[in-house]
Amino acid sequence: MYKLFCDSNCELWYKTVAELGLEVIKMPYTLNEKEYFYDMGEHTDFEGFFKAMRGGAVPKTSALNEYAYTEYFEPVLAAGNDIFYITFSHAMSATFNAMEAAISALKEKYPDREIRTVDTKTISLGAGFIVYYAALKYKEGATMDELESYVNELVPHTATYFAVEDLTYLYRGGRVSGVSKVFGNLLGIKPILCFNDEGKIINVDKQKGFKKAMAALRGYLREKGSELDKYKIFVLQADCEEAAKNFVADIKAEFPAADVVVQPVGPVIGSHCGPGTIGLIFHAEER
């Protein structure tokens, strides 16, 4: 028997996590010198968090240490269960160095137990999309080999696109230059970003104005989307609920049979993308 793990950077809603029977590794963030661990939205003050950001607060995120991973994994192994962990992109964080160290030590201590990890090469509900469909297979009784094969097949077909309101937050994270930030904000430039096959964020487009940015996102869905009758479409919003509502309405007008799920961006991801971000995740011919 094995337990299926994900981390809170996959951003699946807490009720969905409970329904799927997932074990969750909670990622930390700090706001106004106080540390929190994202609880998948169960008790999260989204409005307060983004209001603080708009007011000038600079939240920070950090990597888990080896001890934290051991705390999550060891009770499962000690109970005689194996572990299958679907992670967010390893290219996005140094936390996986600590994870590998913990796994190495635990394998020595529990040589009869198995620990597998699979990198989704994306983050937020891009990773959540993969975790969600993997968890359905898990609940159906898929073996670890079957699940690993399924996830590896789904990864290159999971597209994660997003547009941001303010380039300041990407600048802080080293995603754009200082000059690009200043002139981009003055001119109302909205960059469109996505994840490449290595799990890194790349800038694929720039649009002047929010409406054009949303039209560009729908264009990627139109051009790249596949099996949209089989897979959900996820829309993320960071303190821009009304904009997301209008965006979904436009998607439904073009794809009336689509099952569109809307969720707020959590504080860990929100620390990097900032308020006003809209994300779009869907099954694609290629990411």
Q: Could you outline the blueprint of secondary structure elements for this entry?
A:
Elements: E1 2-7, H1 14-20, E2 23-25, E3 28-31, E4 34-37, H2 46-54, E5 60-61, H3 66-78, E6 82-87, H4 95-109, E7 115-119, H5 125-139, H6 144-154, E8 158-163, H7 168-172, H8 178-187, E9 189-195, E10 201-208, H9 210-224, E11 233-237, H10 241-254, E12 260-264, H11 267-273, E13 278-283
Parallel strand pairs: 1-2, 1-6, 6-7, 11-12
Antiparallel strand pairs: 3-4, 3-5, 8-9, 8-13, 9-10, 11-13
Helix pairs in contact: 3-4, 5-6
Write a brief caption for the model.
The chain is of the alpha/beta class and 287 residues long.
Describe it.
With 287 residues, the chain is α/β, with parallel strands linked by helices. Helix content is 42%, strand content 23%. It has 2 domains: 2-155, Rossmann fold; 157-283, Hypothetical Protein Tm841, Chain: A,domain 3. It has helices at residues 14-20, 46-54, 66-78, 95-109, 125-139, 144-154, 168-172, 178-187, 210-224, 241-254, 267-273, and strands at residues 2-7, 23-25, 28-31, 34-37, 60-61, 82-87, 115-119, 158-163, 189-195, 201-208, 233-237, 260-264, 278-283. The strands form 3 sheets. The protein has a 6-stranded mixed sheet with strand order 10-9-8-13-11-12, sandwiched between helices. It has a 4-stranded parallel sheet with strand order 2-1-6-7, sandwiched between helices. Helix 4 (95-109) links the parallel strand 6 (82-87) and strand 7. Helix 3 (66-78) runs parallel beside helix 4 and helix 5 runs antiparallel to helix 6 (144-154). The model has no long low-confidence stretch (mean pLDDT 93).
